[in-house]
What does this fold into?
Amino acid sequence: MTVMITRLAVLVAILFLSASGCMQSDSSPKPEEYIFNYTDCNSTTYYISEASVETVYVVHDTTTLEIMREGTAVSSTPEAELSNVVVVNRADTANPLQYNISSHVARGKRHVVIEFPASTDFVAYTEMLAGNELARPTSDGPVRVYLPEGYATGSLLLGTPRPSPEQRFEDDSGRTVLEWNGSNVSAFSVAYYNESAPMVLTVIFTILGGAGIVILTYFKLKITALQKKREMIERKGR
It folds into this structure.
């Protein structure tokens, strides 16, 4: 009887941990995949590629990072949402620190919580992106977004950043960089597109416009010819 109770308790504990989404750190984190730029205040940087986004937080005076995942299925798990989670100290970014990650659901939204040592300076992870848009809530401190190389934003037809960034520039590799003060905005979104898209769109509109003119001219000539034919028939009828 005692053995059965013990087994039942273990089973309940396993189910509880599975439901809460608690897990230990990734067995093989790859810190070399991230860019770590230290700042004197809390900050968040997003490096967008064509299919994913790498998020790097600079953290001060905290041992917990909570990430709200809007639009994520409440049944999903942290490891399904975030990959290559890395926690490091700026003095030794090559050797990741241990961390715990868990999640819970509140008001229909999933909250992912990462707990790490007090010596942590950077917390980074990777997420997959669906489509050419990034939208996130902000926290205190600067927020930077690096668009993929060869991509732009700002076209009313193709996509714009909202709200307008407080700074906009290009880095040494030519990537467009947008920056907000997270204390001034509660969230941001950036829709971006291939730099050649405006030119392609212009060519398409030009072709469509030319085709429209040709069609209108054709129908105008046909109508004129029919009107003349009708007038000839009416004259013969007289």
